[in-house]
Specification:
- By secondary structure, the protein is α/β, with parallel strands linked by helices.
- It has a domain of 165 residues: Vaccinia Virus protein VP39 (Rossmann fold, 3-Layer(aba) Sandwich).
- It is built from eight helices and seven strands, in the order H-H-E-H-E-H-E-E-H-E-H-H-H-E-E.
- Strands 3-2-1-4-5-7-6 form a seven-stranded mixed beta sheet, sandwiched between helices.
- Strand 6 and strand 7 form a beta hairpin.
- Helix 2 packs parallel to helix 3.
- It is globular, with a radius of gyration of 18 Å.
- The two termini are 33 Å apart.
- The structure holds S-adenosylmethionine (SAM) and prephenic acid.
- The site of S-adenosylmethionine has 20 residues, from helix 3 and strand 2.
Length: 243
């Protein structure tokens, strides 16, 4: 995937619009997420590793909020089982269009079905793996438990959910400490103070983050008995739940 450099918030604007996964964002998204999310590459490659261990033959794999298909491609490369299908879903037509191009660039025995839809509206069935890689935080908080319940019900016994999210910390001192480390990560990746602050404003009402405790409780309320965080760098984490 080769995409343009993210310059979306580089020029001052009087009115910052709410962040949307539109054509402009889709065109720079690979650069944006790599420069904004510490550990992103590690998480993508580990998703492939988890796929190799947990996917079973003749099952479905869901990549919910697939964007450009990074997790889908990592999973697909690691499937050795037959009769599997990856179902990759995003409600941004621009993301789906680019995802289709990216997926078509790789040959594989595993089919990918790309669906442009709200992940709250799709059916989940016969799943051995479900991925929510930085997607749940964009759903309205009141929709999150229902989605996790649907995932739990659609997973086969022994199936795995990978849930990656930006975390929020209730301890204000810790929140500030970790947030500052993340800001330094963005600065080190070439984002200016203006870009950082304008993007923060754009994301304010769109991306609502939870604490690790909230995630744990919600995942358990959805039915999962096995849950833990397996990766954390600053305020970005990836968690796993196994049915
Ligand atoms: C941060 S990106 C996910 C990154 C991607 N999973 C990856 O690993 O590169 C969030 C994605 O979720 C999609 N999204 C947000 N809310 C959604 C919803 N309700 N239904 C479907 N897709 C959604 C957005 O369009 C966006 O592409
Ligand atoms: O918190 C930030 O500053 C971010 O940019 C995070 C984040 C995310 O976690 O998804 C937000 C929007 C983009 O999708 C890329 C990264």
């Amino acid at each position: 995937m080769i995409y343009d450099e993210d310059k979306i918030y580089a020029t001052p604007s009087n009115r910052i619009e709410e962040f949307r996964f539109d054509n402009k964002v889709a065109g720079v998204f690979d650069d944006m997420i790599r420069r904004s999310v510490p550990g992103y590459s590690q998480i993508i490659s580990t998703i492939g590793d988890i796929a190799a261990k947990y996917i079973t033959s003749n099952s479905n794999i869901y990549d919910l909020g697939c964007s450009l298909g990074a997790a889908t491609i990592s999973i697909r490369r690691n499937i050795t089982n037959s009769g599997c299908k990856i179902i990759s879903v995003d409600n941004s037509p621009s993301m789906i269009e680019r995802c289709n191009e990216n997926i078509s660039a790789y040959k594989s025995q595993t089919d990918v079905e790309l669906i442009c839809a709200d992940i709250c509206d799709i059916e989940i069935a016969n799943a051995s793996m479900v991925v929510l890689n930085f997607t749940l935080q964009f759903l309205a908080p009141e929709q999150r438990l229902a989605l996790l319940k649907k995932i739990f019900n659609g997973l086969n016994s022994g199936g795995v959910l990978v849930l990656s999210e930006k975390l929020y910390f209730e301890d204000e001192v810790i929140q500030e400490f970790i947030d500052n480390e993340h800001l330094d990560f963005k600065r080190a990746n070439g984002y200016s103070e203006l870009e950082i602050s304008q993007k923060r404003t754009a994301l304010e009402n769109v991306m609502r983050t939870d604490t690790l405790d909230t995630h744990r409780k919600r995942v358990q309320d959805a039915g999962f008995q096995h849950f833990n965080i397996w990766f954390q760098c600053f305020n970005f984490a990836s968690m796993v739940a196994i049915k």
